[in-house]
Amino acid sequence: MTGQRDRWAELTGGQAGEAYAQRFARLAESGQDIHGEAAFCTALLKPAARVLDAGCGTGRIAIRLAELGHRCTGVDVDSSMLAVARREAPTLEWLLGDLARLDSLGLDTDFDLALAAGNVIPLLAPATGAAVVRQLAAVLRPGGLLVTGMGLDAAHLPLPEPTVTLTEFDQWCTEAGLSLRQRYATWNGDPYDQGCGYAVSVHSRPTT
Hints:
single chain, alpha/beta, globular
């Protein structure tokens, strides 16, 4: 652990697992598509790809990706969220851990894609963003992808103001050896324009 509480823990006290799962269950029951992130990632992947869901929460995305035939590992620092994930998909690999200390989990380094959705990056513990991006880049195979989704203003965050800009995030990625491949405004692939309140980014690790 880093010694600092992440912003998610500050917001929820680490007890939000059941409420978070119920929220998405209600959305699904109302007819809303709750699998946009999984569909987005699947379009980037070959069959049976290895996916690391970093900040996996209750496992919603990883479970869907596994249903689509991919091999998924979920990591989260919130044990209440992981309890739901383990109940819903006990055969998948769910790991309790700090993303800034991902190397302590003994993961392989051949993941095809690492995903940090659900405002994982803005909700990290202060001053750990660059370290987390380095850790995620380190588990990717050559040519592997880092896919992130993050709010850039208060309207798209559970916070009064943003904690990271795209310029800062792209710099962390560059320092970790990743390059920007694509950027969108939504998980549906809507074009990103300067000033959008949300960004879905695809960074890649060099092939050599």
